[in-house]
Amino acid sequence: MNFSALNLKTKYDSDEDDILNSFHVPLFACAKQYDRAVGYFSSEVLVSAVEGLSKFVQSNGKMRLIIGDPLSDSEYEAVMEGRLNLSSTRSEAFVQLLSETENKKLKLLTYLVANEKLDIKFAFTHKGMFHKKVGIFYQDDETVVFSGSANETVAALTDYNSEEISVFFSWGVGFAEYGKIEIDNFNLLWANKKNRVKVVSLDSDAYKKIKSSVDIEQLYSELFSSESSVKTSKSEKPFFSYSFPKSRQELIRVDAEAKLPVKPLMVKGRPFELFDHQKEAIKSWVKSGYCGLFKLATGSGKTFTSISALVELYETRHKQGEPTFVIISVPYIELANQWVSELQLFNIIPVKCYESSDNWVRILDKKILLFRSASLSFVCIVVVNKTLSSDVFQSKICKVMPEKILLIGDECHHLGSQGLFESLPPCKFRIGLSATPFRNEDDEVEGSPFPDTAKQNLVTYFKGIISEYSLSDAIRDGILSPYRYDIVTVYLDDAEQEQYEEYSLKIQKMILKARNNSLLSEERVMLTSLCGARSRLLATCSGKLPALINYLMSKNMSMEHSLIYVGEGKSEGDEASYITRVTNRLHEYGLKVAKFTSQESSVERNRIMTNFKLQIVDSLVAMKVLDEGIDVPVCKSAFILASTRNPRQYVQRRGRVLRKSKDKNEALIVDFVVLPPLGSRSKISQNLVNAELERINDFKLTAINSQEIDLKLIELGIE
Q1: d(Cα 458, Cα 432) in Å, to the nearest integer?
Q2: What pTM does this model have?
Q3: SS3 of 196-214
């Protein structure tokens, strides 16, 4: 009977199917050759399939079997380096096992070997699991391939474990893409041509010893007579003695950490579907050789876009029999935790390489070893940038072949700094994510004389922008909420203006010097320090906090789910930090607020964020921690008391409040604009006005009340 007449299914699940009797037995009855690679093997499965096997043997069926042989770390390394040969040891143990047994299950193996119906090879791999689990049934013109999680033991093929297999038919659709690849992989494995696995044959002397120790005809009659009946055991151990302790000799199941990526069917109660701009980004990435920057507006789905690209890359490589190792780098721990949560929606449990190295080094070592030994086809890690550049992380990741690595750099503009750029792996597959990839902190200096090395590094590594999706695009398409923009003017007092001009003159002199002669290292440090001091002056000027309180009093507005961004450092003459001063004043005003900074522990920040979402806390007061990537869709308003001249910062801050959320029809952004004292006409004063206007014009461009802002600027005389 042809295989195609057996009415086979394309998938079998032990929760619903009798895999042994509905799949294996019928195929054994018709097959002429059977190839199988397993992590472990127990002879009881052959006994349970005795009806099929008798016909398989009688029709001169031939079987090739590759048995995974798990080794300890030291043994595995010794075998792979050629310092240890276990072939004779394994063969001798195998012969002794079969020659001396009275167990009918093991005698079946004896018969198959002695009658030259079974060729056996051992695949030495690392302790854990040999994952090349594939079976191939051959007839003259038809082939059936199956693969999946089922090991050939009664425990796996009956109702002891929940197992499933996928089946591919030579006469069916998709065989060339799936089944043929598995056949090629098996043949390469049999020929010992696969990386990270050492495959050796059972010694020829072993075959001779087994054959000479039995009467084949008598053994055949004993095994295949209708009276022969052998019950199987629930707790059959692998028939081979392994080199690690007996307590570890058990069938090892793939745990949650070995989950494979797949796109979810549902997310937050809705069918999962990418937006058109996300699909186009992935297409562009593939066309660009799997390398490029996604310049997508904050809140437009950069994370889901890149994870979907990850899944598609994994699926493509898996069809080719190639593994995939993913590194996701992020700047902050909160952002890392957010990635971990969203990866779980795609069935991915990453290694969390941040915080104490004691929590992840051993796990990463194990994952890398299993990946290199081909025992894992997929590994994903999430790492913060500080850890990415560390010696301990670099010493681990360099063991993975670059052509198997995908790096996803979130807020990738950070990776342009020289220290991080030099830590990036030379991997084949690369995705950079940022709404503003090419702006750097030197924008704080007008006419900066310094080359934009960050941009040069990013272009060198990611090969440029391959997909763009602007804020106006996202608002137009309904992906982000529309927003109303308001400005509150704050004027420097005379002392602050004098200090501002002093800083600015010193900065300008150093810039002029740098254009003619390069600055010494200490001069560059001084320039950076002066820029920082001037920025702090604007951020903490005396009029800002009163202006905030006056605004809240005049509007009598709810502050639920609002963010308040303040400057770093201290005000002139204050002992407490400016953020503490603002927080205390808002408490006095009657608001329920909490600081959210890098000074709080990760546990404290998680608690604060939970209280914020539950409205136990009305507002969060932050400096920079909330600038990038932190997803807080419930935010309805943002009060920007301080902003650098780096557009990246205010673009990111705007994005925090534009994410869609239930009952949020529009967002509010209140921008505290710092101006020189009324009547000041110096060039430095005009430069300050122009710098503030640049941000105002950017914000009003996509605001729903842009005309209202134009009128206000005319009234202020700064249009």
Answers
A1: 9
A2: 0.60
A3: CCEEEECCHHHHHHHHHCC
